[in-house]
Amino acid sequence: MRKLLNIITNSKIKYAFIIFLLLIIYVTFSAFSYASTISKDISDSVFRLHVIANSNSKEDQDLKYIVRDALINYMNDISKNAVSKEEAISIANAHKDDFYNIAINTIKENGFNYDVKISIGNFSFPTKKYGDISLPAGNYDALKVEIGNASGENWWCVMFPPLCFVDVSSGVVPESSKEEMKDNLSDEEYSIISSDDTDIKLKFKIIELLQNVNIFTAKK
Questions:
Q1: How many CB atoms are closer than 10 A to CB 128?
Q2: For residues 60 and 148, is the Cβ–Cβ distance under 8 A?
Q3: What are the tens digits of pLDDT across the range 63-86?
Q4: For the chain, what is the largest distance between any 2 Cα atoms, rounded to a whole number of angstroms?
Q5: Which of 54, 139, 211, 216 could form a disulfide with 60 if both were Cys (CB 3.0 to 4.6 A apart)?
Q6: Residue-wise over 178-197: b if at least 16 C-beta within 10 A, else e?
């Protein structure tokens, strides 16, 4: 009888363990699926700018910001009537040579002779905050600008919707940019990148964690 009870007890423990394991797998799979969907929808709605300095010297970092400002001013001018990310990317591709010339001329005007590499593609980004908007880590379409050896610190912003600021530390996202972002995202997706609500911030952290895992895995 005792042996039978042990068999029944062990069977219940094994059954409970299997159920628990399946539940963990289901929750993990659902979390990854949720994070991937949200991250993809957000990345599909923005076109970013990525500027990399020649080095981390003060001179090269200062130059990076000067080049950044020149490119942002030009992009804002030529894409001010763009109504979608695809249109903004199309405009950027059509003016790729202009971006190169603006960057190279700005560098020369400031006493440097670095070359510049301009590329438009899909790149991995860390989590970044722009005023009161935060974008989770993930892969985003972007205009990438590499100055000289491109071994210095990076600078990121969003070219569409226009979230770039000359003074990022005190920048406030314009309402017009927020409206464009809202038009391209679901209510939940927009709340995730803009809300300070504790539950929403927890969702953002989950997305951030899982996307960082994806980026790390992809690099291996």
A1: 19
A2: yes
A3: 999 999 999 889 988 988 888 889
A4: 92
A5: 54
A6: bebbbebbeeebbbbbbbee
